[in-house]
Each structure stands twice: as C-alpha cells, then as structure tokens.
Write the structure tokens for this entry.
Amino acid sequence: MSGIYGNGVALNEKVLDYLWARQEVTLNNIANNDTPRFKSQYITFEDEMKQRLSEASASSRSPRQAVAEALEASRMRVHTTKSESTRLDGNNVDVDQEELSLVRTALEYQYILNSISNDFARLKSAARSF
C-alpha cells in the first residue's frame, strides 16, 4: 500500500497491529487475575521501531524503501513481569494498572484510526478537485 500513500499508512497499520496485540495481552492479564503463580506480561515495540526508523533515515538507499523495510523488520516483544507478588498465591497482576493500560491503549488505537481516516478524507478531497 505504500505506492500511492507513501509509508504513512504502513506505519499506522503496523502501530495498530501492535496496539491490538497490547490490548490482547492486557486482557489476558486481567483474565488471569485469579490464576495462582501467573505473572503478568506486557508488549513493547516503540523503542525498536524508533531505532529502525532512525537507521533507515541514515541509510543511503531510497528513503521510501528504507522506511518500508524498517517498518517490515520491526517486531514487538512480549515480556513477563518479574516483580514480586504481594499476594499469597504468587500472582502479580495489578488489575488497576491493567485497566489503566487497557484504557490508554484504546485511546491510542482510536487516535491512530482517526489519523488514518483524516488522511483518506484529505486524499478524497484532493481527488475531487481534479
């Protein structure tokens, strides 16, 4: 999809995929709140994506191609929280923190969807003028 729209749509698509996965991990943590010895998990992708995009901007290749490859190569990572549990069953899920993360992720997801919608609305408006 980067042909007509550049890398903006591809970037937004990748971020939406990551945010969706973050939401799934958070919901899994909440669902396992009563599971003995369950350790909560979290997803990171921002640092790796930032690093890969920085490397792409320093590349000697075509900027569009370098960014497209950087987006394709970036990966999310699932981490298990190592913090000690204050509960007797060994579970370390903090439901309040998980719910806060869920709301934050939902807001970020909605923000990206609005951004994509606005991009397409501008393109549609520009196409009408021809």
Residues 43 and 78 are 5 Å apart (CA to CA).
